[in-house]
Amino acid sequence: MYLWNLALRKGCLGYIKYILKSSLMKLPIFGWGFHILEFIPVERKWEVDEPVMHQMLATFTNWEDPLWLAVFPEGTDYTEQKCIKSQKFANENGLPVLKNVLLPKTRGFTVCLEILRGSLDAVYDVTIAYKNQCPSFLDNVFGVDPSEVHMHVRRIPLEEIPLSKDDGAAWLMNAFVLKDQLLTDFIVNAFLEIEFLTDLRLVVFTINASATVFTLQNSCSYTVWPGTLSGNGAAILGDGGFAMAPGDTIALPAPPGWSGRFWARTGCIFDDAGTGNCTTGDCGGILKCTGGGVPPVSLVEFTIASGGADSGKDFYDVSLVDGYNVGLSVRASGGSGDCQSAGCVADVNANCPKELQVVDEGGNVVACKSACAAFNKPEFCCTGEHSTSATCSPTPYSQMFKNACPAAYSYAYDDLSSTCTCAGADYLITFCPSSN
Fold first, then answer.
1. Is 120 helix (H, G, I), strand (E, B) or coil?
2. If we measure between CA atoms, which residue out of 219, 375, 341, 358 comes closest to residue 281?
3. 194-247 pLDDT tens trace
4. Is 15 in a helix, a strand, or coil?
5. By its UniProt entry, which InterPro entries does this protein fall under (predicted)?
6. For residue 63, what pLDDT band results from cuts at 50, 70 and 90?
7. What's the distance, Cα to Cα, between the start and end of the chain in Å?
8. Strand residues in 233-359 grouped as ranges (E)
9. What secondary structure does DSSP assign to 136-178, as a single string?
10. How far apart are CA 399 and CA 285, in angstroms?
């Protein structure tokens, strides 16, 4: 059911299909629905399943038809007895001995790759872990939810998966070795180390019924190192900072009442201890930020309603008050109210006035200062005799930011056109968003 939740959050609920044991297709009510949704039934006997899979998979090959095909390579639920049997088979056949998952059945997976390779762009390796114990089928039916559900997702472009069946099977086996290690670490630590996930290009997020989920997406052509800063002693999201390669996403749950900010750091170099520096947005020379990013830096700011979706509004904005380094956008999903998008799509660095430019060693403009940071004058900083909305007006510099990014804060009192509200939503934060 949590894959359904994930598909719903990604707007793909109508496109998800499963490969299921044929016995489940015979369940009252549910089985009828599975047939309508074109789920693929299997008997777990290859001579029976192969022609059925070929026939049904061939109907999913239209590139224009979105598809999420959920495959469970283990073929059955995990139990201790099944694990012992799987380990015995592994020992007898020189295969990896796994502790937390069963050996995958590779033939169905490789057939899916063979038939769908021309119409899909990636495989998502999903591992689900529960805080205490895995809920039963009846628990799911009657709404008995676990306290925490951790989902670990790794995106693998199809071109990175071997073409031959033997090599594809070996790739799948190695993926299950990684799954086993993930679950071993989870059992020991009750959480997963972000450094470990970064090494494996894995994305971690927790789905919680009362949480607001921030999904961060790197659409830049280069790696960024998001920083997070929580206010008022609120929970620290994402350990304060992490790396995101181009195309990566990560979802971070935040409790009711959370407030804080996100920003992108660029040009970072960190050692194994997480010590280093960034060209823009640096937060004290550490990977896991404990303070804000050094201006100039583009910011996303949030204050989440304190009592959940029904008790108030979330407030959010994209701010260029501290300058600009990377384009940002925020889009709400699943909420009610105005729920407008906020952001800055334009490349401000490309048109930054010379007196505001920050350049790297190669002479490239990597950030654009605010007039306050550049000149430190009350009329630019809205301080002293200019400390109220009546006495602090837009300047030519703040107007330059506003013209480039109408949906972002350009100076301290730019509230009316820049603060957005929404109730009960999750939020997509995109670095380097497109004009679409």
1. coil
2. 358
3. 333 333 333 333 334 457 889 999 999 999 999 999 987 777 888 899 999 998
4. helix
5. Acyltransf_C, Osmotin/thaumatin-like_sf, Plipid/glycerol_acylTrfase, Thaumatin, Thaumatin_CS
6. low
7. 32
8. 249-254, 259-265, 269-270, 276-277, 299-303, 314-319, 328-333, 342-344, 357-359
9. PHHHHHTT---S-EEEEEEEEEGGGS-SSHHHHHHHHHHHHHH
10. 32
pLDDT of residue 336: 85
Model pLDDT, residue 203 = 36
Helical spans, DSSP H, in 268-329: none
Share of the chain above pLDDT 90, in %: 33
- In the chain, what's the furthest Cα-to-Cα distance? 83
Distances (CA, A) of 106 to 15, 41, 86, 157, 354: 24, 17, 14, 18, 59
Decide if pLDDT at 253 tops 90. no
CA atoms within 13 Å, Cβ hemisphere of 20: 17
Instruction: Give the global pTM.
Output: 0.56
Span 212-431 CATH architecture? Sandwich (2.60)
Residue carrying structure tokens 């009362």 = 210
Cβ pair 305, 294 in contact under 8 A: no
Measured at the CA of 302, the angle between CA 300 and CA 303, to 5 degrees, comes to: 165
Give the residue range(s) of CATH 2.60.110.10 domains in the chain. Answer: 212-431
